[in-house]
Amino acid sequence: MSDGTISQSEIDALLAGVDMGGIASAPASSVKFDTTVLGKFADGLKDKLVNNLNTMTGANFEAGAPTAEATERDQLLAKLPEMVVAVMADFNTALKGDHLFLLSPEFAQKLTGLINKEENAELDDMALSVISEVVSQHTGSEITDLSADGKLPGLASNPAEAVHVPKAMVRIPQGSFCLFTYPVTLDGQTYTLWEAVSDEVAHGMVTSLGGGSDSSADSSTGTLSAADLGSLMGGATPQQPMGGGMAMGGMPMGGGMPMGGMPMGGGMGMQQPMMGGGMPMGMNTPNVQNLQFPNLVGGPTSQEQGNIGLIMDVNMEMTVELGRTKKQIKEILGMGEGTIIELDKLAGEPVDILVNHKAIAKGEVVVIDENFGVRVTEILSPMERVSDLH
C-alpha cells in the first residue's frame, strides 16, 4: 500500500470487520473518556476527602495517590472482598448515570466506630447511615469542583443510600466505566474507597474539565474509523455490501486501475457517469441513520419490592425518652419516695423518640383522653442521630 491505493482484498476485509493493522474498523468497546484528565481531577480531591474524614472522625487520615482507570465489571469484582458496603448516589441533573462507591466492611466499621465513638461497631442501619453521610460529603466536593466553570449548571445527585451485601449483588455500571481508587491510611493501616461512574458520566466529567476524548486518537494512530471509511465510500457504511455497481468515489483501486474499468460481480462494468458524492447516477442513495437505544434505568425489581413486604409486620420497640441524668451509686441507694430527679432536658423541650434504642425523631408530649402520647415534630438527619449517641 505504499502508493496509497487500497486493494480489493483489503476492501473486502474492511467490510467484513477484519483488522488489517494499518487500516482498521473502530473497536467495538472504545473508551470515550480521558483517564489522564480524570486522574488529575481525583488528585485534586484527595485532600478534601481526608479533610472530610478527619473532621467527621476526629482521626488523622492521610491520603495516598488516587488513580482513574477504564475497567469493566469482572475486573472490578476481582479487586473487591466478598462482602462490601456499596453506596449508590447516581447523578440526576446535568450529568445522568451510575455513581457508585464501594468500601470494605472493615473500612466501614472503622469509620462508624470513630464517628460514633464505639468499639467494634456493627454494620447496622445506623452505621450505613453514617457511611452514606461520608459519601455525601465527598460527592458534594466533587459537584463543587465540576460546577466551578459553569459547564454543568445544576449538577446534582440522588441521596446516598448504603447497603451491606455480597459483591455479586451490587449494581455495577454496564460495559466499560471509569473507576477511581482513593487509598487512605490511618495508624499504618491502608483502606480503599472505590468510586465507579458510568461511561456517559465520565465523558461528561472530562468535557466539563476541559479535556478531550481518548477515542479521538483514531486519526493520529493511522487507523481508519468507520466514519472515515463511510466518507471515503461516498456515504456507505462498512457494513453495506458493495454490490450493484457502487464506486469508491472515483478512487483508483489496487494496481491503480480506476473502478470505472473494473468488472464487479458477474462481469458488469462500472461505466456509469459519477456524481460529486461518489455514487453512480441513477442509483438510490441509501438513507443511513444512527440507531439510538433508550438508557437503562435502574430501579427496584418486583422481587426486591416483595422482599420488603416480608418484614412489614415485624414488631419493633418504640420508646419516648423524657431525659437522662447520671447519679453516683450512693445517691441511687439513697433514693426514696418523694425524691426528685433532675433531668438534662429543659421544661418544654422536645422529647426523643427511639426505635430499638436508636433516636430517630423528636416530639412533644400530648394527652389523648386519659393517656399520654407524643406528637412527632422532627425527623432526625443521619448526622443528628450520630451526635445523639456521643
Mind telling me the C-alpha Rg?
32 Å
- State the order of secondary-structure elements, H for helix, E for strand: HHEEHEEEHHEEEEHHHEHEEEH
Counting DSSP E segments of at least 2 residues, the number of strands comes to 13
Q: Oligomer, anyone?
A: single chain
Q: Runs with pLDDT <50, length 5+?
A: 17-29, 213-227, 234-280
Strand content: 15-25%
Counting H and I runs of at least 4 residues, what is the number of helices? 10
In one word, what is the shape? elongated
Mean pLDDT: 77
Share of helical residues: 25-40%
Biggest beta-sheet profile: 7 strands, antiparallel
Distance between the termini: 76 Å
Structural class: alpha+beta
Overview of the molecule:
The chain starts with 7 loop residues before the first helix and ends with a helix. It contains ten helices and 13 strands. The strands form three sheets. Strands 1, 2, 3, 5, 7, 8 and 9 form a seven-stranded antiparallel sheet that branches. It is of the alpha+beta class and 390 residues long. Helix 4 (105-116) packs across helix 5 (125-146). 23% of the residues are buried. The longest helix is centred in the first third of the chain and has 23 residues, at 35-57.
